[in-house]
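Much of our argument rests on the idea that a fold can be written as discrete symbols. The record that follows shows the chain in one-letter code together with its fold in token form.
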Amino acid sequence: MAILIYSLIFIKDRQAQLNDQLITMNGLNGTNLVAISLGEITAVVSEIKKIELVANQANAIRFAEIIDQLDQQFTLLPMRFGSIVDTLDTVSQMLKTNYQGFIKNLVEVENKVEFGLKIYCDPEKLKEELRLKSESESEILDDSNTEHSVSVYRVYVNKKLKAHRLEQKLLSYIEGVTAEFSEIIGQWDAKSKIKKMVTSAKVVDAVFLINRAGKVDLVRSIEGLQAKYPRLSFVLTGPWPPYNFVDVTLK
């Protein structure tokens, strides 16, 4: 029998409340959830047979649901699916050895939740709209309309130049949207990780950590961006436990 770890909770003086909640919950495969504590940290674990821990969608979803239920009431560090150790004593030793690192991370995510934002577009339609709105197109001479013969090479260069300038306009446009989004979440002192131009259609893929109190205002702000940029599709997900903002190297 092995030990499956679900999360590390910043328990402080709320151990009794956690114990009461764990009584009403079950772990994977209906097992009892157990609290292993050290100082201000409690690891929520359950026993499991390694052969029962099948990495399928149902188990992964159930594992995430348990963490999410705990996250509604407590500040926690979620563990990855399949975080297994041999015994309860191993869990206690892990808490002892990594205690300061766990505390540091828990303080950073205290009273905060994670959201994800993906911004999609139809790249060809967006480029066409940017091209039509651009006044700089007139700066590129179209020698094909003159009476003088032109080389195929010159036509090719002009075509590539137009395509390059259009790509630059697209990048500048996405930079502007990203800056506006970053300014919005900055008002909640958010931490963020943002990837731009992930694919031609997914122009922004971001995760960020904000204060719990800012959830309603965040949704309204993203709705405002959607109205302002109808050519883009804003997909906001969350709130989630802080999966992308845990930075601990276990010793």
Q: What stands out?
A: Residues 152-186 form the longest helix (35 residues). The first strand starts at residue 2 and ends at 10. Residues 55 and 82 are 8 Å apart (CA to CA).
